[in-house]
Design a protein that fits this description.
By secondary structure, this protein is mainly alpha-helical. The chain is about 70% helix and about 0% strand. The chain has one domain.
Length: about 170
């Protein structure tokens, strides 16, 4: 139920604000921005949700500061670090792929990686605030940013095909 409230808010935001705005700009922009929005909703689901029902309780637990020792779990052999590293990289590959397409003109590697870093930093800093059982970790920040860089590399490889497909989609009325 807690997650349902967040999803309802996200759907309403999309339907009553973003969909109309993006649709007016063309089918290509609507498609790319909608894919990015869906992707970001999934990122929120896996990293921060439930948010709205947690807001009244954010001050009811101590804030755990970020672990600033990179790859400490890997170095000390704790937990399922390989799985965590892979999942953090995989989670942000779509960001690096989709983000340049949401900008006209498309942004380059530096801006894409920078915004992926900012998104990841925001998530890492908010996790322990919203949920007292979550913690922030510099390794997550590094691996998320790496995933965004890899996603941009995939975008570069497929850019000619994507440009052709989006141009044809944008020309159909």
């Amino acid at each position: 139920m807690k997650y349902l409230i967040d999803f309802i808010v996200l759907v309403l935001l999309y339907l009553f604000v973003l969909f109309r705005k993006w649709k007016a700009k063309g089918k290509d922009i609507l498609l790319v921005n909608t894919l990015m929005y869906i992707y970001l909703a999934f990122v929120l689901f896996f990293t921060l949700m439930p948010v709205i029902t947690s807001l009244p309780f954010i001050l009811n637990h101590p804030y755990r500061f970020m672990n600033t020792v990179p790859f400490i779990d890997v170095l000390s052999g704790r937990g399922d670090f390989v799985r965590q590293v892979l999942l953090n990289v995989i989670m942000t590959v779509p960001f690096g792929f989709l983000f340049p397409m949401t900008r006209k003109p498309a942004v380059g590697f530096g801006k894409t990686v920078f915004f992926c870093f900012i998104m990841s930093l925001g998530i890492e800093l908010l996790q322990p605030l919203i949920n007292g059982f979550r913690s922030a970790d510099i390794t997550d920040l590094i691996t998320n940013t790496t995933g965004g860089a890899m996603g941009f590399g995939i975008y570069i490889v497929f850019r000619p095909i994507l440009a052709w497909a989006l141009q044809h989609l944008g020309n159909t009325k």
